[in-house]
Amino acid sequence: MPKSNRNIFNSFKTYQRYYRFTGLYSFILSNIVKILITILIIAVLAILINSYVIKVSEIPAFLIKNFPLPAILIFFLLSESFLGVIPPDIFILWVSEMKFPYLMVGLLGFISYVGGFNAYFIGSLIGKIPKIKNKVEKIYANHIDKINKWGSIFIVISALLPIPYAIVCSLVGMMKYPFYKLTYLGFFRIARFYLYAWAIFIIF
What we know:
Number of strands: 0
Low-confidence stretches: none
Shape: globular
Largest sheet: none
Helix content: over 70%
């Protein structure tokens, strides 16, 4: 094996051992399990709602008819720029009955991508206010620990899995993580919207 290939292989093994030792793989697995449980709960709720309340397939049309598109998109941007506690899947369901649903999913993904930048700069401002920064560090000590251990990989995980992406972006902004890295890691956020949309459109 050429020396350069050996160095790459050895580096790969070193990273593998480190991630296994720090619990990265078990963390990813536990979040995948959470996704599967969430999908199961959503499916059960959908069946119940469909049977006793309203046809689930009629919900997107109801939302489209009663809520203006610009208002919902602005609301979504605000959610993705601050705490990001409103599940994006609700918005994916909302666009499922539109004329070009996957185009709208791309728009939602782009809005979330921009929201991550907003959250980053909010975090940068928080980092300049010691009292607020100290409180945030105490509240999100667990997330900060994972950012310190896994760096960019944790940002990718938060973009793809059910971890509040806006909060993670704010924390990395507060921690002075290089902004240029977020500009390309954020594309995983757009990919997440298409992956989840594919699953949601199949279910509903």
